Protein: Cytosine permease
Organism: Arthrobacter hankyongi
Amino acid sequence: MSAHSNSPESIDSSLAVAAEDHALASVPMGDRKSGFQLSLSPVSVATALVIFAIGGFTVVLAGFTVGMIAGILVAVFGVFLGRSLGRMAFNTGMSSTITSRFFGFGLKGSSIGSIIFTFMILGFLAMESALLYEGTLLMFGLDDTWPVRILLYGLMTLLWIGLAIFGLKLALRATGVLTLITILVAVFMVIQIYAVQGANPMDVFTYQGVVPGGAWPKFEAAIGVMGATAGTIALVTTDFARYCRTNRDVSILAVAGPVTQNIIMTVLGALIVIGGMPKVIDYLMARNAGMSPQAAAEAASLFVMQNTGAFFVVFAGWIGFITIYAAQAKAQAINAYSGSLSLVNLVDSLTGWKPGRAVMVVVGNFIALLMIAGGILGQFAAYLAYLGCMTLGMCGVMIADYYIIRHGRYDAATHKVEKWNWAGVVTLVVSAAVGIILMATGIFALGFLVSFVLAIGLYPLLRSRMPEGTATSFVAEAEALAEAH
């Protein structure tokens, strides 16, 4: 997300320049900000509908106590990742995928990281749109038909494209207000559930979850849903860290997203989903004549992951409906923006062509529509798990390269960038594949953690056997930075 200064003199009147936003260049110090200002960006992403769904679903599976323990642990892990990767982006002044050219993958090798990041961020763009679509159907009582799909998804896509290209500064200015409104509406829903309707909050705090067995199966389920997103928020945070002024600002930024996502949203998600389930069941039975309590209960349970906006519609009506759209607008602008950065790096690293970011915003939104058509919302849990193997494998390689191989040092004047860092490429492929196989075969449900640990351990070993320049060549600094002259 853009993090330029908000002063009038800093806003370029040229739409073309505004749209590019240092997509392929290091951010100059004059355009950098404090960590507190920048932290609004990951917080806005962490308060989106999909994160609300993850928090609520985690507690549904594992119970409140185990879910919160998992949330705290994942938050700590996320802060570590965000701080580690953010320091790299702070030093280079570039986005996460451009930074991966310098640490771990090389100019052309970074295209693999771009594919992963694109798959990640555009997947969230698609899931958020799908959740909004389902909430809109419920609000207006619409049927899921092709004309309705074309109309609603078409309008949303045009909105995301416009915001990501020309409305990013507006979205940044509105982020704090919209995030506050989202949280206030969530608090209003909690008051409605427990103070007005008389639900007992202890039913939430003592909720044991639907996963059978003892504490470990529940903990494994909670980490399985929540832990896979640690790499996601870390890479998104890295895109914002390039705008930090100091290392202290990086630390502030790195804390904001994971704490909001894994702790605050887990509490709110649990209180609303668990306590609000009876009301949602009654709502469905009232709107669907002849629906049995059992069928309504099954439909309501699906809403936790596939129609999270329903809870806002049921408890807050038009206010809730407008809120989820306003909240998603800022998050979707960031998703579309970050996805376009990754696509720009992908095309540039492979072909040398430097496409405009505006073009890649359109391409990214089209890819998101294809994901929706492929049923990404119905494969939500599996998507997150496999995504975690890829993102954490990528994070592991970059961290190992910067902190183990280079001892946390970066000098732009002497740093050499390879076209292909084969040690990094091989490590990422192997570590991600191992994690995915472990989960797909049922051997270990937390394969994404194995991917991370394996990447950190394997990369230094391969790098010692394949030092800089092995089976590749180096590129000039200007080419590595991909600055448009």
About this structure: Strands lie at 417-418, 474-475. Residues 1-20 have pLDDT under 50 and may be disordered. DSSP finds 20 helices and two strands in the chain.
